[in-house]
Structures are given as C-alpha cells and as structure tokens.
Amino acid sequence: MEKKQTLYIGFDLNNDYSQISCYIPRTGEVKTLGKTKYEKEDLIPTVLAVNERTREWLYGEDALMLGKFGQGVLVNNLLEGIRKGRQFEVFGARLDGVTLLEKFFKKALARLGSYFPNDAIKMMVVTVDSLNQNLVNAIYQSLEGLGIMKDRVTVHGHGQSYLSYTLHQRKEIWMNDVGLFDFSSRGLFYYRLAINRKENPMVIGIVRKDFSKQFSYEMLKNEEGESSPPALFGKLANSVLYKQVISTIFATGIGFSESWADEVFKKICAGRRVFRGQNLYSTGACYSAVDICEGKMVDYVYLGEETVGSTVSIPLYTDAKVEKMVLLKAGSAWYDIDETAYVILDEEEELRFEVKDITMKERAEHILTMENMPSRPNKMTRLRINATCVDQNTCVIRVKDMGFGEYYASTQRVWEKIIAI
User: Fold this and answer.
1) Which residues face 180 on adjacent strands?
2) In order of start, what are the domains of the chain with their CATH numbers?
3) pLDDT tens-digit profile of 164-174?
4) Which residue, 165, 189, 235, 252, has fewest beta-carbon neighbours within 10 Å?
C-alpha cells in the first residue's frame, strides 16, 4: 500500500546532536521523536560507524558504543567535514560527505516508521546552525538519494527556525523583542529577535552575539569564583539584556540541560517569560514546513544571515499598463534563489532592473545592454531572464536569446549582469 504524504518534518541537523520533530495535522501538535515510540531518547548523536566484523552501518548511540569498544570505525564531525569539502576514509575506502549524510538521514528518518507506519513526508525542513553552500548542496543531494526531492524539502538556518517557533506562540510572547540563549558544544550564542511592526509586512531581523570564546562548553568544568559557569553566564547575559525591551527569553542546547543556570535565569528574567527546552529548532522547522505548504503564517519579511535584504524587479508592459515583475524577493534565502522569466522585446535593446532595499527604502537602477542583438522585426525576440545569487549580497542576472519559435532560431547568445543587493 502506497503511503500518504501527510507528515510535516523538522530535522535539526548539527555536528554533535540532531533531532527530529513531526507536526501532527489532526491535533495541531508537534512531537519530537525518540528512537521508537516507546523510548524518549530524542537527541541523536550525529555519528556513523561501521562494524569491523559484519561491515554493518550503525548510527547515533549505537555507533558511539561501537566506537567506544573499538569494534569498528567511527565517523564523526560529519557536518564540519562536508562544509570543508573533505572526504572520509572507512576501511581504506574514501567516501564523500553526500554518501555518508544519505546513510545518516536514512537511518534517522527510519524513526518515522515506528510512529507513522502508513504515512510519508509531505514537507521537510532541515535546520542547521550555520549555512554553507557545500552543506546545503549535500543536504539536498543526500535526500534526493532517498527519494525526497527538492519540492518536498528546504534548508533553513537556526535563526529562521527560531523565528518560526516564536511566531507560532501566543502573541503576548512576542509582544516586544525576544531573546534566545543557545549553549551547546559550539559554546554560548545569543540571538535577539527584533520586530518592526511599523512596516507592512512586518520586518523581522535577528541580532546575533557570539560568546563562544568567552564561554565555551568546556568551561562547565570550572567550579568556583568569577570563572564559575553561573558567574560567567550571568555576566554575559546581563550585558546583552541591559536596557533592552524583551518580553520573553528562550534557552536551548545541551549546555543548559543541567540545573547550574537555574538561579541565573531567575535573576535575569525577572518580569519576563522564560522557556527552556532542547527541541526549539526542530519544532520551529516543523512549523516552517507547515507554513510552506499551507501559507497560514503571519505576513512578515525575515532578514537574517541567510536572506537577502532587497527586492529585484523588472518593469514590463502587460495588459495595457506597466507592472513590475519580481525576480528576487527580500527575505528569500539567497542559496535557494533561482527564478526564471520570459519576455518579448518591444523596440528595446536594454533591460532595466530595479533594486529596492527593504530597510533603507533606497532604490537603485541597473541597466543591462544587449550588445550585438540580432536584427529582427519588432516583437519577434523572446528572452529568458534568470536570477540567482552567489552570496547574500550579490545577484547574477543572465539573459539568453531564445529566438522566436519556428520563425527565428536562437543565437544561444547570453548576456550577464552582476548586481549588488
């Protein structure tokens, strides 16, 4: 029996631990999945291992145990290796990151079968702590190997998952700015969600503070004095919260799994709501998956480290009036932008592109002149316009002569324009 595509999945993929959450449409709840429906163990060590005797691949806790007892080859730091483009050696064979990530996804997603044996994935959002083109490409390619194509998966940074999680809470939770302390093996990070309600749609940005050098995970071993974990964390927390209008504080990460920070949170969060938990990112990714498919979310533009801050459009004459066709929308993830449009020239030898900065309200015009355009009658040249981004601040426009059907063949000529956004 063919499984129905009903599941909305949030997959928090990290270098040390990963997590899977699933949105259940009939109840509107999000469940973070354990190894089986009878086990609560929901943090998955992001490691693989090969049994030396049987050559069987294991993952998670089973892989760690195999490595601990020296009964096989342990593959860890998988994401960092993929980001750097390196290969991994297993029993003399060199394997690339895509192959290994596909194995990890396959074994981790098998958890779904224990909970939802008759259902398949409708939309999946993979969320990672920092975006990198090698990693993004590897995620898409590895999931394609499992039959989960790009129309059913997207990749977000932790910032966007944090935003999605917050906006799915009661409005009083995000009445003002919202803070998040994230303490994991990477160290301590702070994210402030800043919401500009004066704009329509709302513009939401994230201010990120990196305290990983001042407060690393290893410093939890300190015991007394000013270098003790409560003292260090309290000092850093007070520095970012001072005179800030923040209605809610979230805390996540394995660094906060013990009780050492309890008294600090009581002091710094007086008059504020405080929520602590391990599955904020995977739950936020779940909500994003629902929003992508159902589009019921608050109208906003998110400006984060993975999104573009400008809209790029081209004026076109259609239906007896000039309208702007958007090629690139502010708030879109730069690595996912790949928009294509077709136009017919009407006594023109150049194209005009307008860039509008959504925060500064500034506009700039860029002109692409199509030199050596073949001589044809008016309205008998069709062009394909494609917009992509090479990074957060750079858009590449490629224009190709498509000819005009059976009347004029394409010259295959391509013009290119690089635009700062």
Assistant:
1) 191, 250
2) 4-157 (3.30.420.40), 161-278 (3.30.420.40), 310-420 (2.60.34.10)
3) 999 999 888 99
4) 235
Place of tokens 């596909």: 102
Residue 296 has pLDDT above 80, yes or no: no
Contact criterion met (CB below 8 Å) for 388 and 340: no
Alpha carbon distances (Å) from 87 to 17, 77, 297, 344, 373:
21, 11, 40, 47, 46
Q: What is the DSSP letter of 320?
A: T
Q: Which residue has the tokens 């990070």?
A: 189
Please give the pLDDT value at position 96.
Answer: 93
In the structure encoding, which two tokens stand for residue 157, read together? 């940074």
Asked whether the beta carbons of 26 and 10 are under 8 A apart, the reply is no
> Distances in Å between the alpha carbon of 405 and those of 317, 344, 375, 382?
21, 12, 16, 9
Residue type, 175: M
Cα 129 from Cα 372, distance rounded (Å): 47
> What distance in Å separates the CA atoms of residue 401 and residue 385, rounded to the nearest whole number?
9
Exposure on the CB side of residue 267, measured as CA atoms within 13 A: 13
End-to-end CA distance of the chain: 49
Under the banding of pLDDT at 50, 70 and 90, the label for residue 259 is: confident
Contact 130, 157 (CB under 8 A): yes
Token digits of residue 241: 């919260």
Summarised one tens digit per residue, pLDDT across range 212-241 is 999 999 998 877 667 789 999 999 999 999
Report d(CA 16, CA 60) in Å as an integer: 10
The token duo for 411 is 């010259």
